[in-house]
Specification:
about 35% helix, Formyl_transf_N_sf (chains A, B, C, D), alpha/beta, hydrolase (chains A, B, C, D), purine biosynthesis (chains A, B, C, D), homotetramer
Chain lengths: ~280, ~280, ~280, ~280
């Protein structure tokens, strides 16, 4: 099975051209998702192709698409399934998001191969050890911040990491880091963005007396907490919930929003479009 | 704008053929929704086509599709937008579903033209009068049931009704009626089907102590409460809610599920597939 | 039936004292809701009392409570049920919130008597006329703003209005107005506050690419959009929804959040505590 | 801190009597939840008492309550906090519910001490070993069923288990077992009961074409799938979801409903009332 992700300026006949190319080589469309943004005339698509009866080699099929892709002035990407994305998980102290990811990987809910867990604190080492996953403790307090991020970047490069998950990693990323790994870093923010940007969102939510709290899974950009949103989740709360209760309830939002966001990304169901994310849900 | 709805046995190249036909006449795809049921090899699609730059007359474009449609062994249907479905609303006493529909029609949320309101009780006549909509009071108690349904069928035929909405119409429909108007009758059932089939579902829900109640919008078939489900809605309830409270809270579920179900149907976003409904959500 | 609402500094024995007072006069507790905020040692309660077997006159029972209330340094309030709050609805052009309120009043979902509808535009006059409710068209564009609000204040005073509902009333209220009717004005804001404060929240939500939109029902204070939140509602949205779609979907959030917020207020289920609202849900 | 749970026939003055008893010994009410079922005149309450300034020994305070409890013809129960319920988890093959419980115990979300994990298959032994929890593999296929349940009962007795969690334990329990551990067994059923009772509920849900699936956490009674419901959770599904997708999505419903249900039970927030459960949510 092959997944094709494509975006290009809108024009007549795109679907016909893509579908015809696939059909002409005896591929079978399993799922075709398309979105035309009429506000700015952009076209986005995600296609699942059954390649079991292709009349050419898979590599030739993929290479041959370039002629069409270029004529459409498109950006496109093929991924052969099944696959596992090489993934590093960045953590600080809290374990709930880490645990959620590890559990879903073990259930085959998420097509990831966890190459390592990276922590600026040592708290999650026990979990890594239990699961037999390498753990890198990277000191980055105070003056060590820059060298810490250089260290992490080296790990990501050395391990050929395709996806970095910030699973409640409590560090502000430097711009160069965001840019080097642009589109490959997913964060979970513990509020319903854009509400309660910044520190201590559950305390802010308590003080404001909101009736729903939330969590936001988004791509990381150098503009803190403003990256394209992949998924959000909310939960009803009561006046009787203390800030600690909100944190407890919020953990469930975070786990759910992060897990779904990773899944959408891993299965190529997301296309970044400026500061928005197109998400073809499943 | 033209909406095409199509279902056929699955086979290679369907999307390519449909999209190529449209592109070959200079139509532009605005939205393409497709679903392949791999369990029984059926293909379903809904297509929105911008026809402003077609190179043939619309009628020719539609007629010309027949060659392709037949070769695919498809069932298909075109609808030109904007349009208004000629719609009758069947009611008994309660007004909340009726009110919801009338309000949404007035807001242009639902593309309906209400031809008349039909009641086996006179309770809703006041509302019909206020809105300037004809009201038919059809007596159908006891022995009058059969003649009552014959009367209603005559009204639906005479008014060229395309859609009949059972907005809490508390009568069991005879088979012949379900069959004559098959696919054209939408009901709102006041429970989360298939739970609590039958009379007094809110009382049943109270007795069972459920923590969520719901409502189900479905196509009417001769098998009572078993027609294809279009939409469902639920709401959390507490032990402290009496059966009357459940009725009150349930009304909101009913209004929402019915309004969304009608919208999906009216915009041709539903395809009936046996006792299931394919619903391309918007 | 009598509703008692009370708040006071926390101290030992409050519940015992209140419940004993009621029992000593042969009242029966139907519902007792209590919340102790341990962060700032405040006590809040709402009590429903069956007064059918009271051993004194209702007026004496209420008057006699003052001794206890004062000893607790409490603020308290009794309301005899059934009752109807004299209510004015303030509108501009859009009708969905107005319609929702009128429908719920007619269903006895909301214990309100609508004294009048006040509009700074004439759009809603048709609805008012249909329902036989007085409509005041108050011009308040540009220079007329101040005199407009004075006019509205006079109407509220003359009609002995106990509750003013801003049902998508698109005007910023002057401080003096907020203060004169403090605790008696409920607004529906068309976003999930505190996100997207200010103009055009649905456009802001589209631009930010959020995956959920919402609405917030809150008490009006002179600090715009920062009043105590009574209720919030959210709804999932997709990348394919245009700003117009968000407005359409948002209307449902607004109707639901506003209706529930009004209900909580009308049945004395809310207690304002600084910029938060205690809400004893039903 | 002390938790009191009480139910009795409704009568005047119950709250006053209970609260006065507590106040008379200088206890402080932290939380008072009460529900009067007017349909059958029953009174239910849950009280949290700060006992730090009691003027008697805790044991005396508890013992002394008996006079009042008996005069009210009540059933009541005190629990001193903090506490940990001795809990056994019964499993078959699937791990998601087990993992969820273990994770929440480690986060102090659930006040449980897991005494052992009991499996009629060996699949979950790895997890038990990792966490250092004893694992009992009890064979119970075919003829071994009765001796298997006797074995389990012995384990529960020997380990002084206060709560048994059926975390997707795929065995029908014999009546004697349900009765011996009545009120101490919590099950998670993988459907929105009472819909889809019996085998393969996700397949049933697929066939019926429902738009929401769910899970139900309930007390176990000898009447299969009919025990008092503690919590339910639902999730929206699409026509494109296969039965396997429904299982995957359903797992999240199961984890959430089970975790919340256990929490309510463990903190004495539930009172069984016939085949309904009163649940004072937090």
């Amino acid at each position: 099975m092959l997944i094709l992700k494509l975006s290009c300026p809108d024009q007549h006949g795109i679907v016909a051209k893509i579908a015809s190319y696939i059909a002409s080589h005896n591929g079978n469309l399993l799922e075709f998702n398309q979105f035309t943004n009429t506000l700015d005339s952009k076209f986005f698509a995600r296609v699942e192709i059954d390649t079991s009866s292709l009349d050419v080699e898979l590599a030739s099929f993929i290479a041959g698409f370039a002629v069409l892709g270029e004529s459409l002035k498109a950006q496109w990407h093929f991924r052969e399934a099944p696959f596992k994305l090489r993934t590093a998980i960045l953590v600080t102290k809290t374990t709930h998001c880490l645990n959620e990811i590890l559990w879903r990987v073990s259930e085959n809910d998420l097509p990831l191969e966890i190459t390592s867990i990276i922590g600026n604190r040592a708290h999650c080492k026990t979990i890594a050890d239990k699961e037999g996953i390498p753990f890198h403790h990277v000191e980055m307090d105070g003056e060590l911040k820059n060298t810490g991020f250089e260290h992490i970047a080296k790990i990501l490069r050395d391990e050929h990491v395709q996806l970095g998950i910030l699973a409640r990693f409590m560090q502000i990323l430097p711009n160069w880091f965001c840019e080097e790994f642009s589109g490959k870093l997913i964060n979970i923010h513990h509020s319903f963005l854009p509400a309660f940007i910044g520190a201590n969102p559950y305390r802010q939510a308590y003080n404001r007396g909101v009736k729903l709290i939330g969590a936001t899974c988004h791509y990381v950009t150098s503009d803190l907490d403003a990256g394209p949103i992949i998924e959000q989740e909310v939960k009803r709360v009561l006046h009787s919930h203390s800030p600690q209760d909100l944190m407890r309830l919020g953990r469930d939002c975070e786990r759910i929003a992060l897990a779904r966001g990773i899944r959408y990304h891993a299965y190529d169901r997301t296309i970044i479009d400026g500061n928005r994310a197109i998400v073809f849900e499943d």
